[in-house]
């Protein structure tokens, strides 16, 4: 792996931006969908390198989807059948920097990717990405909806109570391990 990891130049709504490449391939068990990459992740060249992103990796380890690793988690996850993409490929420090037009543009691109790669589960890392694409719903976990033919799972929020988060993650663990 080069020192840029998965950092790439991509075309986004008519402009070239530095972002993270999609880590997708046929046969994935899960595709993790984020809102958009954080600048710290793009700088590192790897998904979920910020504070909230590190919490995501902790939860995947708790579910049993990820071993503790000394390397880059996204590389390990891909080897285990877990892929990554974002609805919006333009990095911003937070979701407030993403426009409604970008979500709409990214929605069509995401649906095309899901149709092409046909993962078993689409896992939304943050509820905002899921509600933007699927409309309003209550709760998280498996929400009884599908996207691109795959069941949708929405991770508990980073500030969710530990009891609720544990219960929600147990449903994912039952399905995938």
């Amino acid at each position: 792996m080069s020192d840029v990891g998965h950092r790439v130049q991509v075309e986004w709504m008519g402009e070239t931006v530095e972002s993270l490449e999609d880590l997708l391939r046929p046969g994935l068990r899960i595709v993790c969908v984020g809102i958009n990459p954080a600048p710290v992740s793009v700088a590192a060249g790897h998904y979920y390198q910020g504070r909230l992103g590190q919490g995501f990796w902790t939860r995947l380890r708790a579910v049993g989807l990820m071993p503790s690793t000394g390397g880059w988690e996204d590389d390990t996850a891909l080897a285990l059948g877990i892929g990554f993409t974002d609805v919006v490929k333009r990095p911003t420090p937070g979701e407030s920097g993403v426009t409604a037009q970008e979500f709409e543009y990214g929605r069509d691109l995401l649906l095309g990717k899901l149709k092409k790669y046909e993962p078993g589960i689409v896992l939304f890392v943050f509820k905002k990405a899921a509600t933007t694409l699927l409309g309003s719903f209550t709760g998280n976990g498996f929400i009884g909806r599908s996207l691109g033919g795959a069941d949708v799972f929405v991770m508990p929020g980073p500030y969710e109570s530990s009891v609720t988060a544990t219960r929600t993650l147990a449903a994912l663990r039952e399905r995938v391990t």
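The chain is about 40% helix and 20% strand. The beta strands are 7-12, 15-20, 30-34, 82-86, 121-124, 141-147, 150-154.
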